[in-house]
Amino acid sequence: MSDKYDVIVIGSGPAGYVAAIRAAQLGLKTACIEKWKNKDGKGVNGGTCLNVGCIPSKALLDSSHKFHDAHKAFEGHGISTGDVKIDVPTMITRKDGVVKQMSGGISALFQANKVKSLYGTGKLLAGKKVEYTDFDGNTSTLEAENVILASGSIPVAIPVAPVDNDVIVDSTGALEFSEVPKRLGVIGAGVIGLELGSVWSRLGSDVVLLEAMTDFLSTMDQEIAKESKKIYTKQGLDIRLGCRVTGTEIKNGEVEVTYTDAKGEEQKQTFDKLIVCVGRRPFTEGLLAPDSGVNLDERGFIYVNDLCSTNAPGVWAVGDVVRGPMLAHKGSEEGVMVAERIAGEKTLVNYDIIPNVIYTHPEVASVGKTEEQLKADGIPYNSGTFPFTAIGRAVAASEAEGKVKMLAHAETDRVLGCHIVGPSASDLVQSVALAMEFGTSAEDIGMTVFGHPTFSEAVKEAALAVNGHAIHMPNRPKRKK
Question: Which residues belong to the signal peptide in this entry (predicted)?
Fold first, then answer.
C-alpha cells in the first residue's frame, strides 16, 4: 500500500487531532496515525490527555468532590444524607464511560471532516515519507507534502521507584485503583501529584506528597503558591518539601519508601500505594528514522523554531514533544497554527498568554508573568490582590478560600499577569487572558461592569486594587515596584 496525502499527522492527542481536523477543513487531504488502544484492544483517538490524563482525572476529581461534599459539607446546608459511601469500581466505570464518549467524539469529527484515521504506529522516513504499521503488523509507506509530529509525552520513570502497576504506579495506574488506599504516597507535588493526591484524599486516603524542590509550585507566583499550600494542608494533604526519595522496597503488598528530608536526615515511611509523578518526557521512541533529518535538543524534545517547523523541510512538530509547557491547549493552538501555515496563512501562537491550571478544589490558575519573573526582568509593576472572603457569591456558596492577584505595568497599567486560587479559577483566569490578548489595562478591567453576585467580581476588585481603588476591601498604600 502506498498513498499520498497533503498532510500526515502522527499522534491524535489534543495537538495532533486538532491539527488534522484544521488541515482537513482547509481542504488538505489528511491522515492521522494513532497507536493508542482502549481496554478492549481497539484503536482510539485522543492520546494521553483524553485516555489517561486530562479527561479521566477530571472525571475522578468531580466524583471525589461530590463525595466530599455529601460526606462533610451538606450538613451545613441543612441537608441530611445518612451514611455516605463510595463505590470505587462504579466511579472508575463512570470515568471510563466519559473517556469512551469523548474518544468517540473525535472519531466522529474525523469522519465529518474527512480525516483518514489510521490505527497503528508511524515512523518518519527521509523525504517526508511515513512508515505505517497497523495493529496486525502490516507495514506500508505513505507519502505526504507535510508531516506533523504530535507523539506527545510519557511519565518520567525513576530507578528508585520502579513502577510495577500494582503497588507502585504512575499517573495512569492512579486512575485505576479498585479501592481507596488507606496510606497513599505520592512522589512529586506538582500539578499531577496534587490532582491525583487530592482525589484519593477526599475519598479517605491519608496522603503524603514527597517533593524534591524546596519551594512549593516553584514556577508559579509564590504568593498564590503559598496560599494554595495553606489550603491544601488544611484539607489534609501532607506536603513535604525538600524530600528526595532514595529507595523503595515492596513487602507484603506494601511499599516502604526511604527518603532524605529537608534537613538531610534519612526517613522511612510505609504506604499501601505509591504514585510516581515526577514529570513527563517527550515520547520519540520509534518515531524517527536515522535519516529523517529531524533533530532533538539536549533534553530529548524535537527541535523546532517559533513556528513549530523542524530542521527537515515540510516536517513540523507540535504539543508535548516540543519545547514549552506540556499543556493540551498549548498543543492544540500549535496544531491549528501549523495547519494554517501549511495552507498559506500567517497564523502565530502567543506563547506569552497561555493559561495554566491545577484542577484541585479550589482550582489554581494563572496567565502571564509572575511577580518573581517581573522582578527578575526588571519590569516596574503594580500588584493588586483581592480575597474571595469579601465576595458575596463565594461566601454564599461556601467557596470563600483563596484570592485573585493582578499584576500590571507600573507605567502603562497594561495587565502583565493574573494568578488565582479559588472557585472557578480556571474560568476566571480565562477572562483575563482574553483581555490581555487585546492589551487591556487594569483600569479597563476595573471599569468593566461585572455581574453581581458572581465569583468574577474578585477579578474586577483585584484590577481596581492594582491602583488602590478596590471598593469592598480597604486599600493598602500602593508603591511602584
Answer: none
